[in-house]
Design a protein that fits this description.
single chain; about 425 residues; alpha/beta; 2 domains; 6-stranded mixed beta sheet; 6 strands
């Protein structure tokens, strides 16, 4: 078992459910959720070629991850025209633990990193038609692309202010006007999605200053806890300390602005309005961080540090790839199919998480038991049918319960537990009606 073929988890199974619909229905259903439609449309056609298996779904993210490394290298070449810097940029993006994790997840985060990086390349290369297209597509991938495009717009304004007499203002901002025009069709849906989040609340808590430091550390060491992570942080700090820092270095200043201003804006929004501060939403900033890390190196000391850094990245990523931590729902589904009898019914026990979409994907459909009323919208309700949530137990002689809550929290009135199986943090139990 590895990160490619391990069971889908809840959000991936939700995505798989949406991807399997027609393109028009994808747009219709995703407009009632919190994200734009491009990833789901792209992967809809991708899976028509590679299939709807776990591997078929996840390989689109692998494709985006590899291209992100390519376009980061192109930015490095465009800015510094240095082969070692270009190669290091490619290699460190490819090995970045945070990006590596989402390269094996059937979600929109890998394409968010790709399209933001692609747009940045075309921006620094001044290839405006390609920039307009890539920036527009990035907005249709994830709302957080907006912060990268805002940085590009702000940098354009700052460059104009420096030498206004030598430039035509309207010509400078024309690409952004085109981007805005091409994004107009999604504005009503975005407004509805934003209003839904602000009016009904979201699950993210307000960030604190410590979260800012934690975010940068995650950009270096990834999310999964491992002993190698601390070494990565130490080495990265040394590399940054050895970097040639120059006050009037416009390339470095552009990268620093691109890295820190979006984080600051998201932090402020999260305090004055609704919290939107979440590490994976800012995954598109990691290539920028890598470019800062690999550029302006001091020849004397930096190369050995990079060699050791790459060694630990390889070790950490190999461990991550071969030690998947997603819940083994496929095994649970296999057990249910083997032990299920005619007349049995299944339910999802609702708690911190439900497993409705996994149960649909793996062919053991189980509605969510919600005696306290309907679930909030951010639990995937955009794709739920009216019968996917039930407030009363089904009238059945035997009920199967799937959950990731502690088994002790389950209590079915008038039923007695007759069997229980554990699958990692998942459990499944059969309950028979009391005689």
């Amino acid at each position: 078992m590895n990160q490619l073929n391990v069971s889908l988890w809840g959000d991936e199974a939700w995505a798989a459910t949406l991807i399997n619909k027609t393109p028009l229905n994808i747009i219709k259903f995703v407009s009632h959720d919190t994200s734009p439609p491009f990833y789901y449309l792209f992967t809809h056609f991708w899976t028509r070629i590679f299939g709807m298996s776990e591997i078929g779904l996840r390989t689109s993210s692998l494709f985006f991850w590899f291209l992100t490394a390519v376009f980061t290298a192109l930015i490095a070449h465009q800015l510094w025209k240095n082969k070692k810097t270009t190669f290091l940029a490619f290699l460190l993006v490819l090995l970045n633990p945070f990006l590596f994790q989402y390269a094996f997840e059937a979600r929109m985060y890998a394409i968010l990193a790709l399209m933001s990086t692609m747009a940045t390349y075309f921006f620094v290369a001044k290839k405006w038609p390609a920039y307009v297209i890539s920036a527009t597509v990035s907005l249709y991938c994830h709302h957080f692309s907006l912060f990268i495009i805002f940085i590009h717009f702000l940098w354009t304004i700052l460059e104009f202010i420096k030498k206004p007499q030598k430039q035509n203002f309207w010509k400078k901002i024309r690409p952004f006007i085109f981007i805005g025009f091409l994004y107009l069709p999604w504005i009503p849906a975005m407004y509805k999605q934003t209003k839904m989040v602000t009016d009904k609340g979201f699950w993210l808590g307000k960030p604190v200053p410590k979260d800012l430091i934690e975010l940068i550390l995650k950009f270096i060491k990834g999310l999964n806890k491992h002993v190698y992570q601390k070494y990565l942080v130490i080495i990265a700090v040394f590399i940054l300390l050895l970097r040639k820092w120059k006050l009037k270095d416009s390339k470095t200043n552009f990268l620093l602005l691109s890295l820190f201003l979006p984080i600051f804006i998201v932090y402020i929004i999260s305090h004055v309005a609704q919290s939107i501060f979440y590490d994976r939403y800012m995954i598109n900033l990691i290539p920028v961080f890598v470019l800062i890390l690999v550029s302006n190196r001091r020849k004397t000391f930096s190369f050995p540090f990079f060699l050791v850094f790459i060694f630990f990245l390889l070790r950490l990523n190999f461990w991550f790839f071969t030690n998947p931590d997603k819940r083994p729902f496929k095994q649970l589904a296999s057990y249910v199919k083997q032990t299920r009898q005619q007349g049995d019914t299944l339910i999802n026990w609702s708690g911190k998480a439900h497993h409705l979409f996994e149960s649909k994907y793996y062919g053991v459909y189980a509605p969510i038991y919600t005696p306290d009323g309907p679930l909030p919208f951010y639990t995937g309700t955009a794709l739920m049918e009216s019968f996917d949530q039930i407030e009363e137990l089904p009238d059945s002689e035997r009920i199967g319960v799937m959950t990731s809550e502690p088994i002790e929290t389950i209590n079915l009135e008038s039923y007695i537990k007759t069997d229980r199986q554990q699958f990692g943090s998942l459990s499944f139990s059969w309950w028979e009606r009391k005689k």
